[in-house]
Amino acid sequence: MASLxxxxxxxxxxxxxxxxxxxxxxxxxLRLGVTGLSRAGKTVFISALVHNLIHGGRLPMFEAQRSGxxxxxxxxxxxxxxxxxxxxxxxxDALVKERIWPESxxxxxxxxxxxxxxxxxxxNRMFSAGRLSLDIVDYPGExxxxxxxxxxxxxxxxRQALELATLPARTGLSAKWRExxxxxxxxxxxxxxxxQWLFESFAAYLRACKEDERALSTLPPGRFLMPGxxxxxxxxxxxxxxxxxxxxxxxxxxxxxxxxxxEAYKTHxxxxxxxxxxxxxxxxxxxxxTMQALNxxxxxxxxxxxxxxxxxxxxxxxxxxxxxxxxxxxxxxxLIAATKADHIHHExxxxxxxxxxxxxxRAIARASFSGATVDVVxxxxxxxxxxxxxxxxxxxxxxxxxxxLAGETIGEETFDGKTETAIFPGDLPEKPADVFKQPAAxxxxxxxxxxxxxxxRLERTAEGVTLSLxxxxxxxxxxxxxxxxxx
Length: 487
Ligand SMILES: Nc1nc2c(ncn2[C@@H]2O[C@H](COP(=O)(O)OP(=O)(O)O)[C@@H](O)[C@H]2O)c(=O)[nH]1
Ligand SMILES: [Mg+2]
Prior knowledge:
Layout: H1 9-23, E1 29-35, H2 42-54, H3 63-66, E2 70-76, H4 88-98, E3 109-117, H5 122-127, E4 131-138, H6 141-144, H7 154-165, H8 168-183, H9 192-211, H10 254-276, E5 283-288, H11 290-296, H12 298-315, E6 333-338, H13 349-366, E7 373-378, E8 386-392, E9 395-402, E10 409-410, E11 413-414, E12 421-423, H14 474-482
Parallel strand pairs: 1-4, 1-5, 5-6, 6-7
Antiparallel strand pairs: 2-3, 3-4, 8-9, 9-12, 10-11
Helix pairs in contact: 8-9, 11-12, 12-13
Bound molecules: guanosine-5'-diphosphate (GDP) and magnesium ion (MG).
Guanosine-5'-diphosphate binds at residues 36, 38-44, 101-102, 104-105, 339-340, 342, 380-382, 384, 452-453.
């Protein structure tokens, strides 16, 4: 007879789960991480996902919903008392009642959605309570990009920061900070005012990169851009120093003070975040604003690819990776989602998806990464536009129609936030590889025409029931992320 000890750990966990289910003592739960850089669309995605599940939205590609097996979905008390709750009701009020986009969040938050369903198989119906708790964790992608710092000491960090700051795209933005940093001697006695001064100018440079329209990738430390609740603490008041090669920090020096704070940042900020949040996730969606990168050009696309490579490495660190000792549970499915696809015509959706596929494949090939299934999707969590065609001469142009936000402009025209308008958004390249190439004739026109639209007006049925938020391919995303748990 096979003994239990021959089971692999994973089989054992599966066995435990089945036993737990059979005794009915345990409701299965699934932790879904939602990340992406700020403004990628995390808040909108979570709000739309929950709203569509609670209100029985149109989700034909989400099998459990299509086949009518979902009895109900409702919000419950979240399992972690120390994590802020995702402000679902507030965000939905903004979207649905006021037709404005919800305010962006700047830290981590969590929401538990419980789904009652009938299993498709008789076997599962016998063992499962037909109840799944989905714990959705929203956290800034900026924090994730900090993880590589765990593999560095203060000297490495300083050297790398200087290297990145002197790349052509960044020299101008970093000039002020480099001048200040070059004017202090690392061996001078430690002094709080100097530390503060260096930190301020370094953080200002990081913010300038973030705001730059060339869509430069985000540089660590992530909390310098998204501090959360640690703003002003010593662990967040440091900066890289130039010219440390081969030098050891003298006790009491500025160098030593910065080094200690950098180590504190790793110990008190990065590690707990990774251990308490990232390492506990079962599934992950990474939202990327691909269209913004496409508009900014090939350098921004390569930057995005680099960020994806780093992110994938964090989710499934391979053997010998600096994170491998910190991981208990491993993410087995990752969805990379290009958001805001409602800005382009559906004829371009497959092209957008092919571009993301290409980015993901290149990132997977380069990352120290294996074992998780990665899929991609081009989607809009909330669809703010409809489609139409406009005749121009003999040509029929595919257009999108929506209400641009007040103050948005195209050419000479400025919109008032009330008027609907048709826009020809432009075409994405047919061959995904082209997005990495510099266009033959450099033109000033970005490839896509971009306006931000107001959230849509919700339609009502004849009986006056408000329908759920419209979307593009949100159901596909759901099927990949949680479909198998409801089988
Ligand atoms: N049209 C459209 N705009 C979106 C969508 N998702 C996000 N946005 C836009 O992107 C902005 C940032 O989204 P948000 O969810 O707050 O980003 P977060 O910082 O990642 O939480 C919003 O204010 C919207 O203008 C979408 O599905 N469709
Ligand atoms: Mg947010």
